[in-house]
Every structure is written in structure tokens, then in C-alpha cells.
Amino acid sequence: MPAANFASATIWTGDNLDIMRGMNSACVDLIYLDPPFNSNRTYEAPIGSKAAGASFKDAWTLDDVDVCEHGELADRNPAAYAVIDAARQAHGKGMQSYLVFMAVRLLEMQRILKPAGSIYLHCDPTASHYLKLLMDGIFGKDRFRNEIIWSYRTGGVSKNYFARKHDVLFYYSGGSMFNMQTEKAYTKSKNRKPGLVNYGAGQAMFYEDDNGIYNLVSMRDVWEIPY
């Protein structure tokens, strides 16, 4: 397996597509990406911050992607290109352009990721349904492990629909190794005390902190994390 041709903990600035194309294949263990969401908004850095004056337009047209990338996708991954074409018909050219932008980068991530490596894609319901199909086509549906819901309560609400209070993370992995994580599960029972409790099928250790009595359980795929 090729070794990485860059130093660990290296930070780059610029278009990650150009950077990834300079990396050796199968040399990365873990990828996390928090890309644009196709929110159709322009984001500006806060006044007074070091980035003041900078802005980013998260709205997409065919002018935002290289025409050659369409042909590249059709040749390298027909399944991914079929998803993009379906999105164009159902959602329009803006979604098509956004998915082309994403797909060419996901293809490079698939190339540089080790066979047993893992990738986490952070998105929201704006395009998560299309991105899931892209990931299935590029990384393989058998490598899908979890759809993780990041739930939060901040921000405004609408009078026209349920409050939109979650993001989505898609987790894919080519390996079977998984480092199990635990989280605190607080009990509502007023009679529960700290200590070991025996059940018919096993036992559980309960602890106490400032928020109450809890035990440690396997981490779920719904994460309550405030902004």
C-alpha cells in the first residue's frame, strides 16, 4: 500500500480537489468533510473577525463547475452520474451543479482512502437524499454503516412546518474495526441509586453527577449536541 506523500497534521489552503489529486492513492485512514450544503445563501464573515470582508456563496449554477467534470463523472462512475441526472430532472440545474461539485471530490476521496478507512460526510436535508445515493455509488452500498442525526435546539422556528433542527452525517467504512463509544443515559426513576444493579439478563453500573443518576450505554445514531 502506498505511503502518504505528505506530512501528518499538514494544513492546506485552497481548493481541496487540486490538493487531493496530488496525494497518493490509498494513504488516508479517516476523512471528515463539512462541505457547502447548497443552502442558496451567501455567508459573510463577522465584522471584527480576522476574516472580516470574506464571503462565500452557497448557491450553484453550471458556471460554477467545469464542463469536463460532467464527462469525467459519466466515465468514472456511471451510477453517480445517473443520480446527478435524476437530480437535474427533479430539482433543477442548481442541484445538478452542486452534486457535480461534490461527486468529483468524493471520487478523489474514495481514491485516497485506504481500503479499511472510514469517511464521515456532514450535510443537511437540503441534499442529503442525493448525497446518500452518491456515496452508495462511489464508496459502495455495502460500506454504509450509519446515518447519524445531529440534533440541536438553537435558531428560529417556522409557522409553516416543523422546526428544522438537525444535520445529517453519513458514515461509510471499508473495514470491520469499530471503536465503540458510550454516552450517559439518565434515569427518570426517583428510586435509583448509584451502584451495581442486577437484571435478569445482566447487570448495569449506575453513577451520579450534577445532572442526576445515569449509566453508560452504547452511543446511538442520534446525537444531542447544541450549537
Strand line-up in the sheet with most strands: 1-4-6-5-11
- If you compute it from the alpha carbons, what radius of gyration comes out, rounded to the nearest whole angstrom? 22 Å
* Derived structural class: alpha+beta
Largest sheet: 5 strands, mixed
Number of helices: 5
Total domain modules: 2
Gross morphology: globular
Order of helices and strands: HEEEHHHEHEEEEEEE
| Average of pLDDT | 92
> Any low-confidence stretches, pLDDT <50, length ≥5?
none
Strand content: 25-35%
> What is the terminal-to-terminal distance?
40 Å
The counted number of beta strands is 11
Fraction of residues in helix? 25-40%
Protein name: Site-specific DNA-methyltransferase
GO molecular function: DNA binding; N-methyltransferase activity
InterPro entries: DNA_methylase_N4/N6 (IPR002941), DNA_methylase_N6_adenine_CS (IPR002052), SAM-dependent_MTases_sf (IPR029063)
Keywords: Methyltransferase, Transferase
Q: Which secondary structure elements does this structure contain, and how are they paired or packed?
A:
Elements (H helix, E strand, L loop, with lengths): L15 H5 L7 E6 L7 E4 L10 E4 L8 H10 L1 H14 L1 H20 E11 L4 H12 L4 E8 L14 E8 L8 E5 L8 E5 L2 E8 L2 E7 L3 E3 L3
Helix pairs in contact: 2-3, 2-4, 3-4, 3-5, 4-5
